[in-house]
Amino acid sequence: MFERKKRRRFRINDDTMTTIVVSSLFFCVGVVIAGMVLAYLGVDVSTIVGNALTVFGTELGICGVMTIFNRWADRQDKLAQKRLENREKRENEQRENQQIVGDFLGK
Prior knowledge:
Layout: H1 16-40, H2 46-106
């Protein structure tokens, strides 16, 4: 019949949370720029711009915390993988040693 168009989604790094935070940052920058333009025209927008800058700072803090957490989680995954590889290596060595001892005693 007719083909349905695939919806394109705006995503950054294929992560919804990052996309939300970055979009919020762009919105705050837009509010600050609009406030600067209005302030140039003589409108008092100090409260709006102050709140936008507060939200902007909070969002930057959230980005930093998310980055730190992602790095920590990646490091924990690598350590767990390394422990698993070491455990498998020890078990293989033990099996080989038992087989050698069994062959020695059996002959």
